[in-house]
Each structure stands twice: as structure tokens, then as C-alpha cells.
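can u do me a favor
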């Protein structure tokens, strides 16, 4: 049963930072998905998605690049505006792209653009950038910290690999997550993290965790929309699932997205086959 707060007409209330905290407390999983335009935003909202992420993955799935590095703040502002126009009840989270949060002042300028011009409700940024998170939170800007695999550092990392393996790396990630929470982060996203490490971090934090390739014990899940629809450019990541063609039921794209929401909420996605040890 949904524990999302409802309004007096029993309609779905807008999802806010407080809603996400409440969902964690109640053990209700958070369903998050990327979108980059108004049409898909409306489909996600109707399917019951809680949070829509305008990810810098748009560099790959919309613009055709090999990485997220070429994505600019103008690109994310534009796509956030498109999504926000039809986001309905969903909380709109916008990615801060590569080099758009070099220092607190720079981050404040760009987060302001994402919120004022794009209509974002929350910004997401990669790495344990505590001074930036504190500056944004200090100005009342909701923040999602992104730990684990950080695709903006792909040229430094040398490949898309699981992060946080081994006791030392796992403890460091847990410490980063706690420090991000203390600095004011409202959500922590964990990408490509061993399932036990993500479970430990989720249990240690008061704020919700959202996983992608981080196992079923996170407080919510996110996927890139194109992966869910089986139209990933190149090889679909192991942690994703094609909800459009994996199940032989009618209903097309809206039904596939609704199946994803149900699978996240009932804990049947992600399975062991989508997770790392
Ligand atoms: O850009 C994006 O879509 C993301 C997800 C992979 C979490 O950051």
C-alpha cells in the first residue's frame, strides 16, 4: 500500500524532500527514472514514478556522445525545462554536469539556473564535494550526492567499474556518505556499488539512498529510461532491465514504465542478476 501523503481529494500529492524522507521511514521504495522531454515526463508521472532525473546521461542517449563529459549546463537547463513542463507530481532532479560545480560560488550560480530557468526541485552532483553541498544546502537548495561510480570521471577511472569493493574502499564510501548527509545532502545516489556496501550505507543514513547497480537494499532505484525501454545505445548495462520486451504483456511504453514502478515498489527489481558482490 502506498504511504505517499495524499491531498484531501485523495489525489497524489507532489513529491517533496519530506515525502522522500517519509517513504524511507515507512519502508516504501522510491521509484526514480530519467527523462529528457515533456512527453516522457507525462508518461512517467502517470505511471507513478516519484522522482524524475534529468541526468547528464542525456549526453549519451540524446546527443550520441560516448560519455557524459561534453554535456553543458545549458543542455541540462533546456532538458529540465522540457521535463518540468509535464512533470506533474514528480520531484524534478537535475544533474549538475561536468565542471559545473568547480567551487561553491560556481555551483550556486549553476544550481540557480537549473531551478529558476529549468524548474528543478533538486540538483545532483558527483563526488564527495562537501563544501559545495554545504553552500547549496545553506541557500535552501535540495541536493542529491552521487557516490560510487562517477561517470564524469571516466577518463580518470579508465572504465565503468564497480566501486567500493574491499573493506577500506567500503569504509571510505560509508564515511563520504555520512559526511555528505552532515553537509546537508537530502538524498545519496549510489552507482555500481556492491550490494552489502549499499545496504550498510542505506542503514547508516537518515536520508534516503537511491541505487543503480547497488542492489535491492537501497531506499529507491533509478534507471536510465532508454535502458528500461531496450534502446540503449551500445551494450545495455548488467544492472538494468528491459521492461518493454522482457515481458510479453500489452500496453507498450506506459505499461513498461508502470511495471518498473511496481517492481521497484515490491522489491522484485533489482534482482541478484542486476547486482554486484
Ligand atoms: O545521468 C544519469 O542518468 C545518472 C544516472 C545514471 C543515475 O546519473
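np, heres the sequence
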Amino acid at each position: 500500500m502506498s504511504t505517499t501523503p495524499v491531498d484531501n481529494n485523495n489525489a497524489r500529492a507532489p513529491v517533496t524532500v519530506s515525502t522522500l524522507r517519509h517513504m524511507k521511514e515507512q519502508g516504501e521504495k522510491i521509484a526514480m527514472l530519467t527523462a529528457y522531454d515533456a512527453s516522457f515526463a507525462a508518461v512517467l508521472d502517470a505511471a507513478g514514478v516519484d522522482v524524475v532525473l534529468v541526468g547528464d546521461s542525456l549526453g549519451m542517449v540524446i546527443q550520441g556522445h560516448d560519455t557524459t563529459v561534453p554535456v553543458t549546463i545549458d543542455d541540462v537547463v533546456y532538458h529540465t525545462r522540457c521535463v518540468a513542463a509535464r512533470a506533474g507530481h514528480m520531484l524534478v532532479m537535475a544533474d549538475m554536469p561536468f565542471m559545473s560545480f568547480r567551487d561553491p560560488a560556481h555551483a550556486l550560480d549553476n544550481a540557480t539556473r537549473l531551478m529558476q530557468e529549468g524548474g528543478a526541485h533538486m540538483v545532483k552532483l558527483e563526488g564527495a564535494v562537501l563544501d559545495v553541498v554545504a553552500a547549496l544546502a545553506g541557500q535552501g537548495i535540495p541536493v542529491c550526492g552521487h557516490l560510487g561510480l562517477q561517470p564524469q570521471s571516466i577518463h580518470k577511472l579508465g572504465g565503468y567499474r564497480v566501486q567500493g569493493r574491499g573493506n577500506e574502499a567500503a569504509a571510505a564510501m560509508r564515511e563520504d556518505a555520512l559526511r555528505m548527509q552532515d553537509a546537508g545532502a537530502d538524498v545519496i545516489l549510489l552507482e555500481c556499488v556492491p550490494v552489502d556496501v549499499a545496504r550498510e550505507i542505506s542503514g547508516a543514513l537518515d536520508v534516503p539512498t537511491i541505487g543503480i547497480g547497488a542492489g535491492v537494499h537501497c531506499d529507491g532505484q533509478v534507471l536510465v529510461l532508454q535502458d528500461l525501454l531496450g534502446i540503449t545505445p551500445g551494450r545495455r548495462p548488467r544492472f538494468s532491465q528491459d521492461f518493454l520486451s522482457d515481458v510479453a504483456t500489452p500496453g507498450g511504453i506506459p505499461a513498461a514504465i508502470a511495471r518498473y514502478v511496481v517492481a521497484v515498489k515490491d522489491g522484485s527489481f533489482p534482482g541478484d542478476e542486476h547486482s554486484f558482490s
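The beta strands are 30-34, 51-54, 91-95, 122-126, 143-148, 187-191, 209-212, 220-223. hope that helps!!
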